[in-house]
Amino acid sequence: MSATLAGVRIVVSAGPTYEDIDPARFLGNRSSGKMGFAIAAEAAARGADVVLVAGPVHLETPAGVARSNVRSAAQMHAAVLAALPCAVYIGAAAVADFTPRACSPGKIKKQPGQDTLVLELVQTRDILAEVAAHAQRPRLVVGFAAETDNVAGYARGKLERKRLDMICANRVGVAGCGFESDDNALLVIDATGERALGPAPKCELAGLLLDLIKERLA
Ligand code: PMT
Q1: Among 35, 41, 36, 43, which Cα is nearest to 86's?
Q2: For 19, which of 99, 144, 176, 196 could close a Cys bridge (C-beta 3.0–4.6 Å)?
């Protein structure tokens, strides 16, 4: 019997962000939203009051979940902060770290003899770090870390630097886990230690992660 989360308000971010270059093009990433949507679905099934802030993905809204659709990192930042206060924030979205300084109003055209195009990118705001530092800080701030190498090391760094309660590290860039796949494997790190979850379907991992979150809320 899974742990109930009745009455617990949980905000989950999921999916990629798209950073527009011009009306025809954007910078995006390979997040499908499956991991975040699985967490939102399982939390709602356990009775939580769930807000899902979703980047551009082709997934159905899970039953009982209030969904807020966004496109860019700036829009995701605004939607997540507007959803506070909550008891738990889970940042499963793959938010762009950089966005074009300006979006060209017209389609950028190739010029004769032009071999390269230089785009100036500026850093986006770190939603997770801002939630963790917010006056209405959730009781639990849970981040994800998507890494191709030194997965645990980089994740520990993010846990400390962003002042999180818990981080879920996962490998990306290989088949069968991370982006797009139906399955994943998580290394969950918090002040009490580390727990390996999976490999397993993302919906199963969502349940195991919510069990840990419920323990931490007790
Ligand atoms: O969507 P799927 O296809 O199912 O894939 C799942 C996933 C691989 C996207 C997911 O499991 C995952 O790892 N999500 C986090 C991806 C990511 O952007 O990781 P990061 O290491 O770059 O960012 C660290 C954390 O900071 C994340 O919680 C991210 O949401 C957050 N962040 C990052 C930048 C930013 N500007 N604001 C943020 O809040």
Answers
A1: 43
A2: 99
For the chain, which residues make up each domain, given as ranges?
Answer: 9-97+122-217
Query: 3-class DSSP state for residue 217?
Result: helix
Q: Best substitution site from 144, 156, 172, 197 to test ligand 1's pocket, by max atoms within 8 Å of Cβ?
A: 144
Residue 168 has which token pair? 């879920």
For ligand 1, whether the C-beta of 169 sits within 6 Å is: no
d(CA 165, CA 67): 24
pLDDT in tens, 34-77: 999 999 999 999 999 999 999 999 999 999 999 999 999 999 99
Judge if the beta carbon of residue 53 lies within 6 A of ligand 1. Answer: no
Catalytic residue ranges: 29
- Provide the whole-model pTM: 0.98
Write the pLDDT tens digit of every residue in 98-130.
999 999 999 999 999 999 999 999 999 999 999
145 lines ligand 1 (CB under 6 A): yes
Which residue out of 95, 167, 203 has the highest number of ligand 1 atoms within 8 Å of its CB and is therefore the one to mutate? 95
Tell the CATH superfamily of the 9-97+122-217 domain.
Answer: CoaB-like (3.40.50.10300)
By three-state DSSP, how is residue 120 classified? coil
Is residue 114 within 8 Å of 166, Cβ to Cβ? no
Structure tokens at 15: 């999916």
